[in-house]
Amino acid sequence: AQSVTQPDIHITVSEGASLELRCNYSYGATPYLFWYVQSPGQGLQLLLKYFSGDTLVQGIKGFEAEFKRSQSSFNLRKPSVHWSDAAEYFCAVAPPGGSYIPTFGRGTSLIVHP
Amino acid sequence: SQTIHQWPATLVQPVGSPLSLECTVEGTSNPNLYWYRQAAGRGLQLLFYSVGIGQISSEVPQNLSASRPQDRQFILSSKKLLLSDSGFYLCASTGLAGIDTQYFGPGTRLTVL
Asked: A28 vs A1, A11, A53, A69, A91, CA distance in Å?
C-alpha cells in the first residue's frame, strides 16, 4: 500500500517570499502524484498532477512541483507567494491504473505574513 | 471538466437523529465516487467509494452507510448520528476508468450536538 508524508504541519512565509512544501511518498513503483489546495470551508482544488514524462510539472496559480524518484519526493514550489495563497495544501498519491484509491497526506497549513 | 454538487452546505443535527447527505456529479459518466470526512485540523479520511451503481466499498466500519442509486448520485446516510460524526464531508469524483483526476465538491459541514 502507498503512503504519503507531509512533514510540515505549518509553514509561515512572508508575502513575496519563495515557498517549498515537502511531500514524500512510499510506493513500490512510480505512482500518480497530486497537489491540492483547500481554502477554509471549501472543497479541494487540484493544483497540479504528475503521471509520467517531464518531472517538473507546472500547475495553476503559479505553482510547480518536481518529481524526484531517487528521493521519493514531489515537492511543491512557488517563487513568490501572495497573501491569497494562505490555505491548506494536500499531497496525494495513487497507484497507476486499477481502482484509483488515492492516499492523502495530512496537509500543510500555509500562513502568509504581509 | 466535472462539477460536483453537495447539499446541504451546513447541517446541525442532534445526537441520535438520522442523516442524509447528497452528492451529484455533472460533466462525466460512469465516474468513481468517493465520500471523505475531514475532522478539524486533520487530513482526509476515505469513508466509502463506488465504481458503479449499487457498488459500494467501505473503508472504515462505523455507523455510516452509502448508496449509489444512479450513475452520478452518491448518498451518505446514518440511522443514528454520534457526536464523533461531526466533521466536514467531501464528495469526490474521478473520470472514466478511474485513471484520472479526482474532483471535489464544496463539502458539507456537519455538527452533531
From this structure: 9, 29, 18, 11, 18
End-to-end CA distance of chain A: 41
> Mean pLDDT across the stretch A35-42?
93
Q: For residue A42, what is its C-alpha cell?
A: 471549501
Please state the rounded mean pLDDT for residues A43-55.
Answer: 92
- pLDDT given at position A98: 62
pLDDT at position A29, please?
84
A43 closest CB neighbour out of B32, B98, B106: B106
Q: Please tell me the distance from the alpha carbon of residue A59 to that of residue B83, in angstroms, as a whole number.
A: 39
Within 8 A of A97 by CB-CB distance, chain B residues are 99
Tell me if chain A has a CB within 8 Å of the CB of B53: no
Distance CA(B94)–CA(A67), nearest Å, equals: 22
3-state secondary structure B43-63: CEEEEEEEEECCEEEECCCCC
pLDDT of residue B96: 55
Does B98 sit within 8 Å of A99, measured CB to CB? yes
Residues of chain B with pLDDT under 50: 97
Average pLDDT over residues A53-74: 96
* C-alpha A28: how far from chain center: 20
CA B99, CA A51: separation in Å to the nearest integer? 10
Task: Compute the distance between CA of residue B42 and CA of residue B111 in angstroms, rounded to an integer.
Answer: 16
What DSSP string runs through A7-37?
A: --SEEEEETTS-EEE--EEE-SS--EEEEEE
